[in-house]
Amino acid sequence: MLRLLVIVLFLIALITFALSNPDPQPLWIVSYGWQLSIGVLVLGVGVASFLVGGLIMLIGEFRQRTRARRAEHQIRTLESQMIELHQRLDRYTNSPAPVTPPPSTTPLA
User: Are 44 and 56 in contact (CB under 8 A)?
Assistant: First the structure.
């Protein structure tokens, strides 16, 4: 919810700036020049930055999900090992103890 709020506020600020600066200005990069509104330029840069940030966040999410899947697999493996060890322990503790005959009460003469 907080992400959505930040996104909406960011877009409102960009659109407001773009609408309040409609006059075209000469822009150039090295030897290439063109006429463009500063507001449209800022809006384009903002949207491009937003998309790059979303892509970086998506890559981080995939890494986190991969780590979570590995951890869940390890937990399942450890739980199955624990169940197996509990079953072994139960077999050893529930096995009948060797029966020893009671001591004889007849005197040895």
Answer: no
